[in-house]
From TrEMBL:
Signal peptide: 1-23
Domain of life: Bacteria
Keyword field: Signal
Protein name listed in UniProt: DUF5050 domain-containing protein
Length: 403
């Protein structure tokens, strides 16, 4: 119990100090490229221990029964209907939103070729502009943005041992595209998947040295034009797997949340952990040991994670789960949890968006159970998603912006 209380107080202290440092950070730094090899080593363990994590009561919480509660949402939801023939695609996910535009990726598959592209919709005129067309040999992923800039990754379609990738930057003001960084993923490790929060763009990179795979948390400060290595871990695959591997990462206001796989060849085990790496460079806080986590987020005192059939909402200050929401199906997924103004939004299956008032635990759907609903996306000040209701709206695709 004392260990858990210490972790709770440590994390709250980190969250409060990091929020303060973000607000006071100067924006007048010179735009020089700088790489800081600052490494925060995760604690080395033979296998995860229950008393080493912040939250462990997730199996003791009864699910909330409110599923269609009268939740009053003090936010506006704006709908944008776009003609299908304009976009040439079945479902468009509005991945980055400003006051003026909605940016999205599209993927058109034809018999002779399939191509990925990036387009913009003017929020006032609904005019569509294609700003980037990938070659036939390239995929795109993780379009995101900050202020007047867009970022995305292009990588090889081929499933060879080496996959060449590039992170691109597009300036919405001068309409120029710049190559930000290039690299190679080896031994079938993933290319970067970008995540953005508070002007910090982050992703994972993997370096293969012999039989060892080194996972790296990379952060790029857009205002300072500076790249930093936040943490590294190593997985030895020379015999049986032994070590730590970063599987996925999400940027949040206070730092970085990482899904970690832990291999122990002596115990012949593989375990999973969600860890929080604070933006101020302090030691990581291990939040939960859990092997069925699909998605997660942190916002202030709240930590949310999703699984098949359930959504968990925990208080970091108290170190315990406050709410649990069970889905209609125990096998369908919940994903992309996003918190805005003390309201939690998430997607159930690929059909419906729910909102939860975190002050009361009340929940309700904000969309019908529709044929296809995109993931939720967070921009500087908005949440967005797309809906394809081809049965009732055969000529249009809808985009929604919550502000």
């Amino acid at each position: 119990m004392r260990k858990q209380q210490f972790l709770c107080m440590t994390l709250i202290s980190i969250l409060l100090s990091s929020c303060s440092s973000v607000q006071q950070e100067t924006l007048e730094a010179k735009p020089e490229v700088h790489t800081t090899k600052k490494v925060i080593k995760d604690e080395k363990i033979d296998k995860p221990q229950k008393d080493a994590t912040l939250i462990s009561n997730f199996d003791e919480v009864a699910p909330q029964i409110q599923s269609n509660s009268n939740v009053v949402l003090p936010l506006t939801i704006k709908k944008y209907d776009i003609e299908r023939k304009t976009l040439e695609d079945e479902l468009i996910a509005p991945e980055y939103v400003t006051h003026n535009i909605i940016a999205f990726q599209s993927y058109v598959s034809k018999e002779d070729a399939s191509r990925a592209s990036i387009g913009l919709i003017d929020r006032k005129t609904k005019k569509y502009t294609k700003i980037r067309q990938a070659s036939d040999e390239k995929f795109m992923n993780s379009l995101t943005g900050y202020k007047n800039k867009l970022y995305w990754v292009e990588f090889d379609k081929s499933e060879k041992d080496e996959n060449h990738w590039t992170i691109w930057e597009y300036n919405l003001s001068n309409k120029k595209t710049n190559k930000m960084k290039s690299g190679v993923s080896r031994k079938k490790t993933d290319p970067p998947i970008l995540s953005m929060a508070q002007g910090k763009l982050c992703w994972l990179e993997y370096e293969v040295v012999g039989e060892r795979t080194i996972s790296k948390i990379i952060s790029f400060d857009i205002e300072k034009n500076r790249e930093s290595i936040i943490s590294t871990e190593e997985l030895d695959e020379s015999d049986e797997r032994d070590g730590i591997y970063f599987s996925s990462i999400k940027a949040v206001k206070e730092g970085y949340i990482v899904d970690v796989s832990i291999f122990d060849k002596r115990a012949k085990t593989k375990s999973y952990r969600i860890s929080f790496y604070p933006i101020n460079g302090k030691e990581p806080i291990h939040i939960i040991d859990r092997d069925r986590v699909i998605d997660f987020t942190v916002d202030g005192d709240w930590f949310v994670w999703t699984e098949e059939g359930s959504v968990f909402v925990a208080s970091l200050k108290e170190g315990k789960v406050k709410y649990k929401f069970d889905s209609a199906s125990s096998t369908l997924t919940n994903d992309t949890p996003i918190i805005k103004d003390n309201y939690l939004f998430y997607r159930y299956a690929v059909n419906q968006i729910f909102v939860v008032d975190l002050s009361t635990g009340k929940r309700k759907p904000i969309t019908d159970n529709i044929t296809m609903t995109s993931k939720l996306f967070r921009s500087d000040s908005a949440i967005s998603f797309g809906v394809d209701d081809s049965e009732n709206s055969p000529k249009t695709i809808s985009m929604y912006v919550i502000e």
